[in-house]
């Protein structure tokens, strides 16, 4: 069997949904299980609703909910035709009534907890998965809707819940494998799950890719296909450099680093379950399905270019700690990391000198509280609006003097931190967000002017 995941950008309207249906039809012989995201932009809108409701702004929240409801009604109407839509309308209505009810409750309390936020966010995939299953069935595919909340089990870390693989795999074998054996096409929402006691959770923004890998690993898929709106993974974000080129084949480790350091085309956790089971992942374009996309495989062939791609992670904050007396003291770094751990705040980059430690974290509302805890250990300064630029390539291992070439082409950009990590396949550094565009343009022009045709197109 294979897993096919369609992102929101591949499900933005009725035409896109029909196109996705045709792509599924072309793969029926390979027994696909399909994972779908919410329609494009819906999760952002749900987030805005939950925030408005949490601030006590009931009417703006409900207005947004009504707009999302209308969009789904219109799309379902176009896809299903009058007779089928009349029946399906009742199901959609029930979901959207429940969403509005929930928003009223949140607005009345004037606070949106992480748990309530997950419940609101889950509606995007709840309704999209039902709608896609109906629409593709109306177009002749033998689809069956599978409730993701009854299959994917996580812990209760709302917003970024961690999958519990044993339970999840057992559920997938029970609920999904028999459908495949029956030649049906299971259709399940990505991103959403439930904790052990049945409370809705989500597995992190962009997490439908991760859902696809969880399902692929649980069902021992031969391949996982990530269908999106670009011709695969590119040498950098095409929105930044329109001339970015397609990577034909890339190793698991290179792709993981790129995803981790901001290449939005793939969620950072996606590859872990696939790596464990050695399942190849392909990134493909639903608007251009004949393009071969990017193949992510255990090992990539040797590449003449030093780098495979440049990733950018924005909204980073640098935290600087200065502690003249304590830095070298036993247990100091442990105490520092303990603070980040307590706030459940992952640290990306670290650099130390004799008297100072600098770290980077994703910018968030928690930073003032973290800084205030750190203040007990050292003098603390933090500054936001930073970005991590990460250049990734296997060939970096073998070639000396690369860092000089990287920084030599951006002499006028203020570099705040540098890391050439233990993985030996990336060089990362931190700059101001305002410098991202020109830095990436120049690096791309330098390192991708000539391309190894085995690896790039
Ligand atoms: P989906 O809805 O399919 O999950 P996303 O918006 O999450 O789509 O991811 C696709 C987008 O990722 C592309 O439109 C592109 O702008 C962006 N992107 C960032 N870095 C890269 C990269 N290196 N290669 C391709 N796309 C990238
Ligand atoms: N809909 C979710 C999001 O926008 C998950 C996804 O699209 O992968 O974050
Ligand atoms: Mg995505």
**How many helices?**
13
Kindly state the percentage of residues in helix: 40-55%
> Could you state the CATH homologous superfamily of the largest domain?
Acetylglutamate kinase-like
CATH architecture of the largest domain, please? 3-Layer(aba) Sandwich
Number of domains: 2
Query: What distance separates the N and C termini?
Result: 29 Å
Q: What would your notes on this structure say?
A:
With 457 residues, this protein is of the alpha/beta class. Helix content is 40%, strand content 21%. The chain has 13 helices and 17 strands. An eight-stranded mixed β-sheet has the order 3-5-2-1-8-10-11-9, sandwiched between helices. Strands 13-14-12-15-17-16 form a six-stranded antiparallel β-sheet. The mean pLDDT is 94. The structure holds adenosine-5'-diphosphate, aspartic acid (ASP) and magnesium ion.
């Amino acid at each position: 069997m294979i897993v096919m995941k369609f992102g929101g950008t591949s499900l933005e309207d009725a035409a896109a949904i029909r196109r996705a249906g045709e792509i599924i039809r072309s793969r029926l012989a390979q027994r696909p299980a399909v994972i779908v995201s919410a329609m494009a932009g819906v999760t952002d809108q749900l987030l805005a609703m939950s925030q408005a409701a949490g601030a006590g702004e009931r009417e703006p929240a409900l207005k947004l909910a009504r707009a999302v409801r209308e969009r789904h009604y219109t799309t379902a109407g176009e896809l299903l035709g009058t007779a089928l839509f009349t029946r399906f309308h009742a199901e959609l209505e029930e979901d959207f009534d429940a969403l509005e009810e929930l928003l009223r409750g949140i607005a009345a309390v004037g606070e949106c907890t992480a748990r309530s936020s997950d419940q609101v966010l889950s509606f995007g995939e709840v309704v999209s998965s039902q709608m896609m299953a109906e629409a593709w069935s109306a177009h002749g595919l033998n689809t069956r809707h599978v409730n993701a909340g009854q299959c994917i089990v996580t812990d209760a870390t709302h917003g970024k819940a961690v999958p519990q693989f044993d339970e999840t795999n057992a559920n997938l074998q029970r609920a999904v494998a028999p459908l495949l054996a029956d030649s049906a096409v299971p259709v399940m929402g990505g991103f959403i799950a439930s904790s052990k006691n049945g409370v809705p959770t989500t597995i992190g923004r962009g997490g439908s890719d991760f859902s696809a890998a969880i399902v692929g690993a649980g069902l021992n898929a031969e391949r996982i296909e990530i269908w999106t709106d670009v011709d695969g993974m590119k040498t950098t974000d095409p929105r930044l450099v329109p001339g970015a080129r397609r990577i034909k084949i890339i190793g698991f480790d290179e792709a993981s680093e790129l995803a981790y350091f901001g290449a939005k085309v793939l969620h950072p956790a996606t590859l872990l379950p696939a790596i464990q089971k050695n399942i190849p992942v392909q990134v493909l374009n639903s608007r251009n399905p004949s393009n071969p996309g990017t193949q992510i495989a255990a090992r990539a062939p040797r590449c003449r270019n030093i780098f495979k791609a440049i990733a950018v992670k924005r909204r980073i904050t640098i935290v600087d700690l200065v502690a003249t007396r304590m830095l070298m003291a036993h247990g100091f770094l442990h105490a520092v990391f303990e603070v980040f751990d307590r706030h459940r705040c992952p640290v990306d980059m670290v650099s130390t000198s004799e008297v100072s430690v600098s770290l980077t974290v994703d910018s968030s509302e928690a930073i003032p509280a973290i800084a205030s805890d750190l203040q007990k250990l050292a003098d603390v300064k933090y500054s936001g609006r930073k970005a991590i630029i990460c250049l990734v390539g296997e060939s970096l291992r073998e070639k000396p003097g690369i860092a000089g070439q990287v920084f030599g082409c951006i002499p006028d950009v203020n570099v705040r931190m540098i890391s050439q990590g233990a993985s030996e396949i990336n060089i990362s550094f931190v700059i101001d967000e305002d410098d991202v565009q020109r830095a990436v343009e120049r690096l791309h022009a330098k390192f991708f002017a000539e391309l190894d045709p085995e690896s790039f197109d």
